[in-house]
Amino acid sequence: MKGLYCKLSGDQGDVKFLLQETILPTNIGDHQVKVQVKSCALSPVEFKLYEDLKLGMEQYPVGREIAGVVLQVGPKVTFFQPDDEVVGILPLDVELSGLCSIVLVDEYNLVQKPEKVSWFDAVAAIKDGLRAYTALHTLARMAAGQTLLVLDGASPFGVVAIQLAHYHGVKVMATALSPEDQKFLEELRPCVGVQESLLARVIKVWDSKEDLVESCLEETGGLGLDIIVDSGVRLYEEELEALMYLPHKHDLITLLAVGGHWVTTEQNLQLDPPDSHILFLKAASVSFLNEEVWAASRAKQGRYLHIMKDVVDKLSTGTFRPLLEDPVPLYEATVSMEMVQRKQVRKRIVIKL
């Protein structure tokens, strides 16, 4: 069987993706499950994270969000039986690509997939749902009546975060990076047939006439935001043109309300003493969003599985409605992954018939 893998090549750190033959181990572990993969999501590979963990891999398997049917279970597996439909996230140290036709995975990385949830929706939402729960529940302690700003709201993660926050009675604002994103966000509805918008305001950061800080303060009556979830920030005033739509860190600190929470995806965030002083005066906090951390401690395994179970339950009830482009066949996986890694597209789903 073939799987998709990537490796860094050359001194420039160029990324190369290739489909290659993979051998499935013959022995199944005590707590392992053999899954026939029906769908797999292609998300950007975080090479820096692999380097930090020092896993020593020559090449990295691609496609960690999978859904499929259980073929066989290990002797000590208690969660699943053959023919169960499951969805989950393969761990970082997995050796098999999620695009392989069959994978072996520990039962603690999977949850039952409700029958009414499609293969497409299951893998489209599982990791973004985990990320949204981590950001809003675990880190920001979201509560009804609060105000939230989601940067790049039209991203797959942004859409799920908006839907989760609205479900819990939070007033949500989001930024749009293009006119197309703006139109998409303005048409977001809680469910089919309802005219109410999910968003209190869409902020057009692509339009130089609209200011992020002024728009948010106007919407909150000058009080600021209880929660901010970014998609990256500018650390300096003058940076690459590719970062022009990212807010400056000082803007986000300015927008925080008293006791506010800033959840950042910026790994190299640097706060100067004046920044820290403003946070101190507001009794505000900064948290770093890394959803991979759930696998770092066995003490968190139960909560990890509970979150994934809640994500698929909300898919089943229609609370979560991931909106992505049409799925791609396996033979287009290499080209699609190259586009995802270069950020030409945000995410791709491969469906296997």
How does this structure look, described?
- The protein is an alpha/beta fold.
- 28% of the residues lie in helices and 25% in strands.
- It contains 9 helices and 15 strands.
- The strands form 3 sheets. Strands 3, 5, 6, 7, 8 and 15 form a 6-stranded antiparallel sheet that branches. The chain has a 6-stranded parallel sheet with strand order 11-10-9-12-13-14, with helices on both faces. Strands 2-1-4 form a 3-stranded antiparallel sheet, with helices on one face.
- Strand 1 (2-9) and strand 2 form a beta hairpin.
- The longest helix has 21 residues, at 119-139.
- The protein is globular, with a radius of gyration of 21 Å.
Keywords:
six-stranded parallel β-sheet, 28% helix, single chain, alpha/beta, 25% strand, 15 strands, 353 residues, six-stranded antiparallel β-sheet, 9 helices
Major sheet: 6 strands, antiparallel
Give the H and E element order: EEEHEEEEEHEHEHEHEHEHEHHE
How much helix, percentage-wise, in residues? Answer: 25-40%
Which percent range describes the beta-strand content? 15-25%
Distance between the termini: 15 Å
How many helices does DSSP assign?
9
Helix/strand/pairing category: alpha/beta
In round numbers, the mean pLDDT is 90
Unreliable sequence segments:
none
Could you say which overall geometry the principal axes of the C-alpha atoms support? globular
- Total strands: the figure is 15
Roughly how many Å is the radius of gyration? 21 Å
